[in-house]
């Protein structure tokens, strides 16, 4: 799909590279499990089925998990009007629009492609942002759809879940499904081997996904700022949303953290260990600096 969102070749290269490397990692992972356990074929087929479900129904799964529902133009005329204008400006199909009844200010887009995408905002976001700020956030999320990185991050994030399922089902099916359990030494060696391989796969996946996820957020900020021509509104929204997330109770944030890779800002409080080490997003300071650079560039052009 071609749109008027500025193309980002660096993002495309990163997406292709991450998917290729993750594919190699998981093919090797499955091969090692087959060699170690010799009964993992069924588990692989089940895991592949789960991945297919996640890919084809990611939009429905996300809406269900976030307690969100699609809204019509009659129910939310201003929100739909903003999305309509941005889609016309970007020359892209309009995604479904949904609202999550959460006080945490945030937004996300998901779906396997532009024709099967959903754009969701929380009621907390709608309450806190001015119309121009909301437009910046929505443009940010629409750029994820236009650049197709939503589908890539969906697959990449779910592969880590598949690794855990493969280890759990394959190991226990072999351990309790006919292996001579009297050979404790062999069993212990098998367990150590599986855990070591799994830890390596998880570490590699973690690094690859975080590298892609952090860059794609900067790319979406840049594309949204260039499309709207107002980087300052997006910067203002970032500050408000980050401040709003900081005031949300920690227990409420935990329920949403599984969607961090998709959110406009992560469900972490700035300065915490999770925000610095495990965040799927660049720091607020880094994003504001990038937007300030874009604003200066636009001023020079204008």
Automatic annotation (TrEMBL):
Q: Which residues bind Zn(2+)?
A: 140, 144, 217
Any transmembrane segments, and where?
12-34, 40-57, 150-171, 191-212
Q: Which InterPro entries match?
A: HtpX_protease, Pept_M48_protease_HtpX, Peptidase_M48
User: How is the co-factor bound, per the entry?
Assistant: Binds 1 zinc ion per subunit.
Cofactor(s) the protein needs: Zn(2+)
Catalytic residues, per the record, are 141
Keyword list, A-Z:
Cell membrane, Hydrolase, Membrane, Metal-binding, Metalloprotease, Protease, Transmembrane, Transmembrane helix, Zinc
Q: Report the EC number(s), separated by commas if there are several.
A: 3.4.24.-
User: What's the main place this protein lives?
Assistant: membrane
Coiled-coil residue windows: none
UniProt domain Peptidase M48: residue ranges:
73-294
Q: Which Pfam families match?
A: Peptidase_M48 (PF01435)
Domain of life according to the entry: Bacteria
Q: How does it sit in the membrane?
A: Multi-pass membrane protein
Q: Name one GO molecular function term.
A: metallopeptidase activity
Subcellular localization is given as: Cell membrane
Q: Which family does it belong to?
A: Belongs to the peptidase M48B family.
User: Protein name, please?
Assistant: Protease HtpX homolog
